[in-house]
Amino acid sequence: MAQTGVLNQLTVVKQVPFGVYLDAGELGEVLLPSKFVPSDCEPGSQVEVFLYTDSEDMIIATTVKPKAMVGEFAYLPVIDVSRHGAFMDWGLDKDLLVPFNQQRVPMESGRNYVVHIYRDQHSERIAASAKLDRFLDKKTPRFARGDKVSVLIAQRTDLGYKAVVNNAFWGVIYNNEVFKPIRVGQKHTAYIKQVREDGRIDISLQPGQQAQMDDVSQAILNHLEAHDGVSSLNDKSDPAVISKVFGVSKGVFKRAIGGLFKAGLIEISKQGIRLVQDNAESDFD
Questions:
Q1: How far is CA 73 from CA 53, 76, 125, 129, in A?
Q2: Which of 11, 89, 182, 259 is 20 to 30 A off residue 125, Cα-Cα?
Q3: Which of 1, 56, 54, 49 is nearest to 22 (CA)?
Q4: Which structural domains are found in the chain, ordered by start?
């Protein structure tokens, strides 16, 4: 069944000078304006379209994909505020309304906010809400430690960052787990650390220990190759510098260079680390 706010595969039923009409089932025949009609489109053709209501509350089709659809969370800019609410740019001709009663704090033009896109069940109008809690799953999530998930950074807190996990749950990335710059609105791949008894999820941007060690070890080798085989970083270096260069904690870095040393791939000294070169005499003492 065709729905507003999502992509639909619809059939062309007739052509008119200003576009084509599509069969949207219970929603009736919906206009796809000429500027969106594919060149090979004719009656009987299937077209993938996004349905939404125009400024006159008529359902209309477009082949343009918005930045987010109904049921999704997104980080969008406010481009205007009126007596009706805040209007966000979501990539379509008609801007996306955030009613005042759906704003967590009064929204300001020129700023971005994380919102959830929803459909009004009575009017078919599509709107957005910054009150994210009401749209997240209240059930205890079934994740295992180490599971890979997608996250949208939604809020900065004293503990760290709140993030929407897999478009369905709240998760927390703690400050001591952040080893590279992140900000609200970014999307990341993350990993489950634990699911607490209250259903809250602790997540990390770092993979499981072995996978992380492999990634960091390769990053160190790449770094050395890009810097003539040498680096001033070693196990005595400032944690902040290590975090800035490799995006990991000092402990992870030390384990990685230790493994590379044992494998005979690098040398470690007070001056830093160096790639071991076959048949080359080392003067890195």
A1: 20, 9, 17, 9
A2: 11
A3: 49
A4: 7-62 (2.40.50.140), 73-133 (2.40.50.140), 148-204 (2.40.50.140), 209-275 (1.10.10.10)
| Cα 76 → chain centroid | 12
Q: Determine the 3-state secondary structure of 279 from DSSP.
A: coil
Of residues 24, 30, 5, 1, the one with CA closest to residue 127: 5
pLDDT tens-place values along the chain, 285 residues long: 889 999 999 999 999 999 999 999 998 999 999 999 998 888 999 999 999 988 888 899 999 999 999 999 999 999 999 999 999 999 998 999 999 999 999 999 999 999 999 998 777 789 999 999 999 998 888 998 889 999 999 999 998 999 999 999 999 998 877 877 899 999 999 999 889 888 889 998 877 655 556 778 888 989 999 998 999 998 889 989 988 888 888 888 888 898 888 888 889 998 899 998 753 344 444
Q: Which residues contact 77 (CB under 8 A, 6 or more apart)?
A: 88, 89, 110, 111, 112
Matching residue, tokens 């929803």:
118
In this structure, how many other beta carbons lie within 10 angstroms of the beta carbon of residue 149?
20
SS3 content of the chain, % helix, strand, coil (to 5): 20, 35, 45
Q: Regarding beta strands 19-23 and 59-62, do their DSSP bridges make them parallel or antiparallel, or are they unpaired?
A: unpaired
Edge-to-edge strand ranges of the sheet holding 230-231:
230-231, 272-275, 266-269
